[in-house]
Design brief:
Mean pLDDT: 80
Order of helices and strands: HEHHHHHEH
Number of helices: 7
Distance between the termini: 46 Å
Shape: globular
Low-confidence stretches: 1-21
Helix content: 40-55%
Strand order of the largest sheet: 1-2
Radius of gyration: 19 Å
Largest sheet: 2 strands, antiparallel
Structural class: mainly alpha
Length: about 140
């Protein structure tokens, strides 16, 4: 009797593992170790890499115009200054690497439903959609 209760308790876990295994693998840019999970640090590095690819003068700082491509197209133009200021914590008119890594990771936080700083299993597909919507990942 206790064996059957134990097996019933494990079923959701086993089914969840099967579903996660059937999910398409994430690109290396999003999941560098290809373990099917995205850590907060992996996400921040993705965001940093994407942002600093726009550093046209190579000074290691993003001006508002260099930062603009990071802002999703669905964000109205009048909101761009506010988006920039969320990252420009020193209010010096530029975003540096430390500010990029320290800025809030709202997309990550929304996808990390269980708040374990790892996006995995059922959280992956919703996060993939968020990354596509923000332009950090090409639509599949």
């Amino acid at each position: 009797m206790t064996k059957s209760i134990y097996l019933l308790a494990l079923m959701p876990l086993l089914v969840g593992t099967t579903i996660a295994a059937e999910t398409a693998p994430l690109p290396i840019a999003v999941d560098p170790d290809q373990n099917g999970e995205i850590t907060r640090n992996e996400f921040l590095n993705l965001r940093k890499g994407r942002a600093f690819a726009g550093d046209s003068n190579g000074d290691g700082l993003l001006s508002p115009s260099e930062f603009a491509p990071m802002i999703p197209s669905r964000v109205p133009r009048r909101m761009h200054g506010r988006a920039f200021s969320q990252f420009d914590m020193s209010a010096d008119g530029y975003v540096d690497e430390a500010e990029m890594m320290a800025a809030p990771a709202q997309a990550f936080d929304q996808a990390d439903k269980n708040k374990d700083n790892v996006i995995s299993g059922s959280e992956i597909e919703s996060f993939r959609t968020q990354l596509e919507n923000t332009g950090l990942l090409e639509a599949q």
